[in-house]
Amino acid sequence: MRSTFKLLFLSAITPLRLTEKGNVWLALCVASISSSDTSGNIEMSKYNSNKYWNYNRKAQKWQEILRPELKDVEKEVLRLSAKGYTMHNIADQINRSFDTVKVYRKDLFEKLGVDNISEAICYAMNHRLI
Questions:
Q1: In a 10 Å sphere around its CB, with 0-12 CB exposed, 13-18 middle and 19+ buried, how is residue 46 labelled?
Q2: Is the N or the C terminus of the chain less surrounded, counting Cβ atoms within 10 Å?
Q3: Which domains does the chain have, with CATH numbers?
Q4: 30 Cβ contact partners less than 8 Å away, ≥ 6 residues apart
Q5: What's the angle, vertex CA 103, arms to CA 39 and CA 79, rounded to 5?
Q6: CA torsion sign, 74 to 75 to 76 to 78?
Q7: Which class for 66: exposed (0-12), middle (13-18), buried (19 or more C-beta within 10 A)?
Q8: For residue 111, how many C-alpha atoms fall within 13 Å in the half-sphere facing its CB?
Q9: What percentage of residues in the chain have a pLDDT greater than 70?
């Protein structure tokens, strides 16, 4: 059986210079693996900001979006997951039960709008949450 997968990239734009009207004049573009399961995602972010802007291709407008607020323990679950720890290892590391770690991950998936831990890690890294 042959497996197929699609690899999507996120284009993140960081404005370096703006015009007098506030339009982007010069920007740095970074491509990274996307946490989205669809193509055509373009984001612009400002360093150390709790906001980012997503380009809506249909409306041809930038939409301002607030980054999700994560609890410290949720960030730790993401960090440890990114290091390759299993849920049992994470539970031992943060002194919580396995079932509690499952709840943290479920909450993370909901907050970040993703379906699995790989997408959650990717989202968190792309949006500077961890």
A1: exposed
A2: N
A3: 9-66 (no CATH), 72-126 (1.10.10.10)
A4: 11, 12, 13, 14
A5: 65
A6: positive
A7: exposed
A8: 22
A9: 79
For 6-53, how does the pLDDT look when each residue is reduced to its tens digit (9 = 90+)? 445 556 667 777 788 877 777 767 666 666 666 667 777 776 777 878
- Dig out the tokens for 20 from the structure: 């007098």
With contact defined as beta carbons under 8 Å apart, do 105 and 99 qualify?
Answer: no
Q: Spell out the long-range contacts of 116-120 with Cβ–Cβ below 8 A and sequence spacing 24 or more.
A: 117/81, 119/35, 119/37, 120/35, 120/78, 120/81
Per-residue burial over 78-111, b = 16 or more CB atoms within 10 Å of its CB, e = otherwise:
bebbbeebebeebbeeeebeeebbeebbeebbeb
Q: What pTM value is reported for the model? A: 0.66
Q: Can you read off the two tokens belonging to residue 34?
A: 């996307």
List the one residue out of 97, 49, 36, 32 whose CA is nearest residue 105: 97
Single-letter amino acid code for the residue at 120 = A
Vertex 31: Cα angle to 29 and 35 (nearest 5): 130
